[in-house]
Design brief:
mainly alpha; Leucine-rich Repeat Variant; 2 strands
């Protein structure tokens, strides 16, 4: 296995196409954790390997974030154990790995909502972000949520809005926006939450409310789309009366 890991790392190094220093600055991590490989190239490389849980676990133990990204792409979402999932999420140390992990490993799982509820209550930075990012991703794909789930998601968002850490509040805004795009009922609830946050005296809550409402207030429902979309999009403009005024 060690030889396989070594060979995989050498292949990743050969795929370098970006300046590691620039990537490290964007991802806010030490430069010695970066090889400089694009996510597109990592995805293409993963396809040549195919699902490989043993290699994925070995790659995860390395220090390089691109190796961790490859590990995420090699693991089989529906068969990976809950223990490994929880171990990995607690070891994530940057937003990009967090978001890739959520989208790739967690979204396909039938227990995804349970993980939203578990992680969003945590205080560790990228565990909490994982819960909120997972909520955003699920909202992007769901036609609707049952009443209990929708209410729980709203409560999680309102609670998370108190957290002033950048990578949490950005994920909270993301979750609120995507929940609000799900359908007209969710949009109304999301707008009310955003407006309530804006009226708060807490700077973190105000930031989340303003961040989300900028997009929520210009969303409309059109016949050919399941989710609400921006009234400024090319598709939406076909349905808008050009004399209609913008929302206040």
């Amino acid at each position: 296995m060690e030889a396989t890991v070594d060979a995989t790392l050498k292949k990743l190094e050969a795929l370098r196409s970006k300046d590691p220093v620039a990537v490290a600055n964007v991802r806010q991590v030490p430069v010695d954790q970066i090889l400089g490989v694009s996510t597109r190239d990592i995805r293409a490389y993963a396809k040549t390997i195919g699902p490989n849980g043993a290699l994925a676990e070995a790659l995860w133990q390395t220090s390089y974030l691109e190796a961790k990204a490859l590990a995420i792409l090699l693991i089989e979402p529906k068969s990976v154990s809950s223990e490994l999932i929880d171990k990995w999420v607690h070891e994530i140390a940057d937003w990009s790995t967090c978001d890739l992990f959520v989208k790739t490993v967690m979204v396909p799982r039938p227990d995804a909502v349970d993980w939203v509820m578990k992680w969003s209550k945590q205080t560790k930075l990228y565990v909490k972000r994982a819960g909120l990012a997972l909520m955003a991703n699920l909202s992007m794909r769901a036609k609707s949520f049952d009443a209990d789930t929708a209410s729980t998601f709203c409560a999680i968002i309102e609670d998370a809005a108190n957290d002033p850490r950048d990578h949490v509040r950005q994920a909270t805004c993301w979750a609120l926006r995507e929940f609000g795009k799900s359908n007209s009922e969710s949009h109304e609830r999301a707008c009310l939450i955003a407006l309530d946050l804006i009226e708060s005296e807490d700077p973190a809550r105000v930031w989340v409310g303003r961040c989300a409402y900028r997009e929520l207030e210009i969303l409309i429902k059109i016949p050919e789309r399941r989710r609400l979309i921006s009234r400024h999009s090319k598709t939406a403009r076909k349905y808008i009366d050009p004399t209609e005024s913008e929302p206040d």
